[in-house]
Amino acid sequence: MKTLVLGIGNLLLKDEGVGIHAIRALEKETLPPDIDLLDGGTGGLHLLGRLQEYDRIILVDATLDHHPPGAIRHIRPRYATDYPPLMSAHEIGLRDMIEAMILCGHHPEVDLLVVSAGDIGELGVELSPAVEASLPEIIRRIRLLIRN
Amino acid sequence: MSERIVVDPVTRIEGHLRIEAEIEDGRVKDAFSSGTMVRGIETIVNGRDPRDAWAFVGRVCGVCTSTHSLCSVRAVENALGIVVPPSAELVRNLMIATLYMHDHVVHFYHLHALDWVDVVSSLKADPAAAARLAQSLSPWPKSSEGYFAAIQSRIGRFVGSGQLGIFSNGYWGHPAYKLRPEQNLVAVAHYLEALEWQKEVVKIHTVFGGKNPHPNFVVGGMPCSINLHEPNAINSERLAFVKQKLDEAKTFIEQVYIPDLLLIAEAYKEDWSRIGGGISNYLSYGDFPMAEYGDVGNYLMPRGIVLGRDLSRVHPVDAHSPDQIKEYIYHSWYAYQEGDQAGLHPFKGETRLNYTGPKPPYTHLDTGDKYSWIKTPRWKDEPMEVGPLARMIVAYAAGKEPQKSLIDDTLKKLNLPLEALYSTLGRTAARALETLLTADWALDIFDKLMENLRYGDSRMVNHTLWSPKLWPDEARGVGLSEAPRGALAHFVVIKDRQVGNYQMVVPSTWNASPRDAQGVLSAYESALIHTPVHDPEQPLEILRTIHSFDPCLACAVHLYDEEGKYVHQIDTF
Question: Which candidate among A89, B126, B171, B348 keeps its CA 20 to 30 Å from the CA of B133?
Answer without folding.
Answer: B171
